[in-house]
## 1
Amino acid sequence: MNHKTKPLPSKLHLSPLARRSLAGDAVTRIRRAIIEGELAAEDALTEDQLAAKLGVSRVPVREALIELEQEGLVEFDARGRSRVRAFTEDDFEEVFSMRYSLEVMAARVVAKRLTQDDVQDLEAMICQQAATKDLTELSLLDVAFHDRIIQAARHRPLAVCWETIRSQIEVWLARAHRAQSKMKLSSIELTVPGHRRLLADLRSGNERKAENAMRLEMATWREWLPA
Amino acid sequence: MNHKTKPLPSKLHLSPLARRSLAGDAVTRIRRAIIEGELAAEDALTEDQLAAKLGVSRVPVREALIELEQEGLVEFDARGRSRVRAFTEDDFEEVFSMRYSLEVMAARVVAKRLTQDDVQDLEAMICQQAATKDLTELSLLDVAFHDRIIQAARHRPLAVCWETIRSQIEVWLARAHRAQSKMKLSSIELTVPGHRRLLADLRSGNERKAENAMRLEMATWREWLPA
DNA sequence: GGTTCGTTTATTGTATACAGTGCGCGTACC
DNA sequence: GGTACGCGCACTGTATACAATAAACGAACC
């Protein structure tokens, strides 16, 4: 033991060192702008213009664009120019089929690893969902619920893969809401019992059961799809 | 039609516009160094030092490190310092379980989309494998084979997910070879017929058949694993 | 002697400056 | 009128310079 400074109240847990960098903020803000539709498909993302709008230099913007490319929100052409990616309905089909595979895998993994904390969190989230009457809010809670399941899997490559499609799912959701899509009101009544059943099967510890429950959950989502 | 320049020999297909940038080269070279073990686990990746070694400035290096983080080869600590990620055996277990899910999905997708070109390429690759007597070379050809299958799926999110684990697979392979691992010579005799069977089932157009063939292929790989 | 405080140093984060490049537009020439 | 050439503009790619911060070391004080 080299340094023996005073032991510092052990309960006190400070903010988790959020690596606050302009580049990180830029990622968040540009991502949000794309999801909200503030930046439209095919819009040219000129580094100078973005930098000016964000009040920073081009460097953080460049780094942000690289990350957003990985999330599938931004595209670079052969000359290095970036633009907001234009999603076709087929693109979303692909994203959701990817989601299907990832979540089924997550269910399988989670079945063996679910902790008491996970269960408590998930139950609390279901209660929150039950209290909601707004479809937009519900869909956000739903994504958060699935986020939490992925987190519960404690499986790094899975989490990384999930992050490559998460934003695209949000793009679709936001777009669907703006378009007053066909998401039915009945969804509210379906979501909560669906999640309860899913959680029950995840808790069973039975991988097959968990997988199948997730397949069912994904199938109900499937109906909300564009085409 | 705005400009009507002369029609330029249609067969002539130039190099695919490889976006040659120092940043891109840096990604390639640092990745290679990590895979080959030239940069060892936990090694600090100082931007200045890397820049000096590569003969460029820090900017391309920074951008390269961001990309390599997404490939799982590089880690950043809370203060922004990067280092070569240290893989545990559990990490590799996770990577290969992820690979399993992705490839099974790929098989399912490919079953419906395989073209004549795909088949020709894959067959040619199998022949190449059959001609090889070197285990290291064979494992590279094997990865290339699976790469080609992913490509044949023509499924963007799948390809992106695959790229998040591909380098890590290569790390494991290179490490295993350096350690004179338990990869058996019999692998050579097993690989080629295995791939032939797999290709046959991918061509069948039957999703279930294709999935199961891939599960089998993955299971044989499984034996080469560390633990 | 050990602890604490300043100073130095190493390294990242950000800004700015500069170089290179393709594209559009105008112009001249046929 | 159309085609080819050349110039300028709008961007990106890269380098360099500067600011900020935390670790490392050392010195002074108890």
## 2
Amino acid sequence: MKEKELRRSLAVLPIGTVMKLTNLTARQIRYYEEQKLVKPERNEGNRRMYSLNDIDRLLEIRDYLDEGINMAGIKHIYIEKERKRAAKKAQLDKPLTDSDVRRILRDEFISVSGLGKKEEFPFKHNKNL
DNA sequence: TTTCTGACA
DNA sequence: TGTCAGGA
């Protein structure tokens, strides 16, 4: 199960292939890199090389875009994902207290339900939301 | 030919 | 986000 993840992380696809696989323009793909949503490797000639994991992430980003979520919202999603990953790692050393659990569940509920202040929920208001 | 960075009638 | 320039 480790060999598989290794292959999916191998950056072997040039941007032209990624364009066809994701239906995104080179402009968009490079822009998402600037926004730190993907981190392609660079080959000897400074060409961006993407891995299958990058493809998945770009497809995910494209789906969010189709759902009407803006860049700020998408960045928010990944930033939170990272924060929670780090938080989870911390949990391994120090078990959560009951109050921690309640706080996390509350934040989770507010985020998913969209009941939080709109300043903290930068998603675009459209028919899908 | 393909991709890169920077820039904007 | 599209698109053009100018170089690799």
